[in-house]
Amino acid sequence: MHSVIETPSHIGFQFSDEQVAVAHLVREFAKHEIAPHVARWDKEHIFPRELYGKLADAGILGMTIPEEHGGGGSDTVTYALVVEELAKADAGTATTFSVHAMVAAAINAMGTPEQRRRYLPKLASGEMLAAFALTEPESGSDAASLRTHAERNGDGYVISGRKQWCTNAGYSGVVMVMARTGGHGANGISSFLVENGVPGLVVERVTEKMGIHSSNTVDLAFDNVAVPADALLGVEGRGFRQALQTLNAGRIGIAAQACGILAACLHESIAFARERHTFGKPIGAYQGISFKIARMQVDLDAARLLMYRAAWLKDQGRDFAVAASEAKLFASEAARRQSAEAVQIHGGYGYTTEFPVERYYRDAKITEIYEGTSEIHQIIVARSLLGKLD
Q1: How many domains does one find in the chain?
Q2: pLDDT by residue (tens digit) across 142-181?
Q3: What does pTM read for this prediction?
Q4: Would 3 be classed as within a structural domain?
Q5: Final residue in a domain of this structure, among 129, 152, 184
Q6: Structural domain of residue 276, as residue ranges?
């Protein structure tokens, strides 16, 4: 498979020997533990819970968690390499891993020492998966208008409300939940760590999706869920800022996921263009096909450069929010556009489940929607240039 690690000079980005070794490890893991099963997972909408124990045993699941809590302590560039390699095999698996790592990072950055000790070792070992609950039926892109509320009750809080499209929450051990503890707007929102199985927390519905079928997505109901005071993550009233910080980092993961889908499209398209013959020669000999493949490569290299720039900025402790938006915007639109071209290159075969490009086409679309739609990211980039004019 064409890979960022196999041809690093293509994008002019220098990876360390350790980063190359980690990517190779994940690629081999995906080859043996994911690729043989992904068609069945996709067809039957299976969430492969046992896979994440294997990812933990391989040192992949907890790679971004600090070593003192049982993880690998890897940086963001390495994380992006891992997400891309997983997404080449299965975008659903990459989604599960990305959200799990995103919440673990939030706990590490914002949690108390006790919260870190309580959750991070379990997240690193695979004993627990982490989930994220921000979106509601009445608030998507306008997340600051959420209605789920948490009221003080003695030494704790009582959470009530509904959450939608909660990744991993049907199988998770802990959910990062945003709820209103104060007045209207962003300043009234706090973050909580809620363990699955507490009374009143109910999975209302499993979401049937166009793609990423191996990723679990559910709606959650919080019916007077009582949590202790130490379930609060960070400072009361800072939850919306925490959610944005978490999503900014997560957007690098979505860009990496899109790059993985795009790389898989390129690999399959090259193979098909060499093997499929019409009028006595391979279809890759025709400009109509070869130019599509050339543009696919260009989009992949450009998406990777934007993605790794954002990851590098984060690792340097520099402001990376706009860079993450640019990477997510470009990579997701490129993946959607080029997955359609991969189907076109395959012709009628591309519209069947005999070849994986139809799955890539379905999986690519969500990268333009979750963790900020393309429209939201255009607003972010435009405001960084123009300021807020309204």
Answers
A1: 3
A2: 778 899 999 999 999 999 999 999 999 999 999 999 999 9
A3: 0.94
A4: no
A5: 129
A6: 241-386
